[in-house]
Amino acid sequence: MSTLPSVRELLAAVFRNVRWIALALIVPPVVAVVLAFTFPKVYQADAKLLIKPGREFMPATNMGQNQFALPSSTMAEIVKSEVEILNSKDLAEATLKKLTVASLYPDLAAAPDDVALERAVTRFEKQLRVDPIDLSNVVNVGFQSEDPDITTKVLTALLADFQARHVSAYSGGQIEPIVAQIAAKQKDLATLDAKRIEYQNLTGAFSIPEQRASLIQQRAQVQTLLQDAQIKEGALEQQVAFLKKSKANTPKMSALETEVDPSSQSSSEALQQLMALRAKEQEMLQHYQPTAPAVVQLRAQIAQAEDFVKQAQSPSASKTRTGANPLLASIDQQLLTAQSELTPITSQIEGYKGQIANFDDQLKKLQDSELEVNNLTRQIESLTADLLNLRTNLEQARLAENMDQAKVSSVSIIDAPRLEPRPVFPKKSLFGLAGIAVGVLIAGLITLLSLSFGNTIITVEGAERIFGVPVVAALPDLKPLPAK
């Protein structure tokens, strides 16, 4: 059998307690309606703020910072920040001081100022409503009061003070620091510029590329002169060695009267021709390679001349009256001439080498000077770029300050404070519905208590549910018969 009451049993319990249920359904709605007419009326003024992405919310970069590395705020974070400013205690105190506590809350006029202000702020926070609208950048601001004129006045003063505080909170105030940074950078720039000029005056490194090109050109010219002198020195050394060898092989005594073959030349003329050919060989080696055809042909002529000199100097070529060999005197004269020419060439070579070493030293010093000048120049260029950025930031800061002074912000009032024509509290319809709901709840509770704790069995189903056995028969309530 079911342990729950049936519908018949429920209806029987309702009819049994119909008076109490009727009172429960009538009294709470009546009381609620009476309270709705009894409570003081509360009015509300509403305004709407639009929060736009503006200059205040852009991250400001300092010198040396990367703009793209700075954190950025989302619109949800920005809206939440503005809501916190609207709900701040300082803003409530400023509004209360502006409108006076006594005019808004006359019952607090007798209290001390600090106590009255604290209590007024507590009431003010309860009366203020700040609700961001979902999926938008709009914030709805409302204020409730029993006096409809006060609501609009308070909301107007609150929003005006809020906009001023918004501008003050997000104002940069960066003009003075930027001006100080510009002055410091200009001082450093002047110091570096003076240091560069002093270094250039000290080292003479004014036009380094032109100076380097001039030194390299002069060194190349001296190098060419050195190579020519070395080649000439080598030729003279070979000539001296040859003359010394010829002198050693030439006898001191020779035939003074000689019968010579008419078709041959004298040995002295042959030797002079051989020396001329050797000098020409050295000159050609300065301009041609040893394997050049002209050089090879010349060397062949030199070999023929040497053979002719050997034949001319052989004993069989002459018939003899001996005496001092005139060829030896000629060789001595040529050797002396060659040695006298070799000495200044050696000095010239040493001088050329010294000039080349001097040019190398100047080039090294010029390179060191270039590194130092380039380092100072890079520092000056970096400071110049920093000054340009600071001047740009200064112009932006001045523009922002002018906008702050003009109270230009990204928060706009899109809906001015406006009083709702009907009071927001109490709402009679809501009170009536609440009374009906309470009456229904009480009526249901009465029915439930009657079924749970009542000691009267009303229906057959109730008897079966209570005793747990089926009912075989139910006798009606019989009236007694009248007496005869």
UniProtKB/TrEMBL annotation:
Annotated ranges, domain Polysaccharide chain length determinant N-terminal: 7-99
Membrane topology (UniProt): Multi-pass membrane protein
Primary subcellular site in the record, as a coarse category: membrane
Coiled coil regions in record: 349-400
Keyword Cell membrane in annotation: yes
Ranges that cross the membrane: 20-39, 430-451
InterPro entries linked: Bact_polysacc_biosynth/exp, LPS_length_determ_N
Keywords: Cell membrane, Coiled coil, Membrane, Transmembrane, Transmembrane helix
Pfam families named among the record's database cross-references: Wzz
Keyword flag Nucleotide-binding: no
Cellular compartments annotated: Cell membrane
PANTHER family per the UniProt record, alphabetical: FERRIC ENTEROBACTIN TRANSPORT PROTEIN FEPE, TYROSINE-PROTEIN KINASE
Protein name: Wzz/FepE/Etk N-terminal domain-containing protein
Species lineage: Bacteria, Pseudomonadati, Pseudomonadota, Alphaproteobacteria, Rhodospirillales
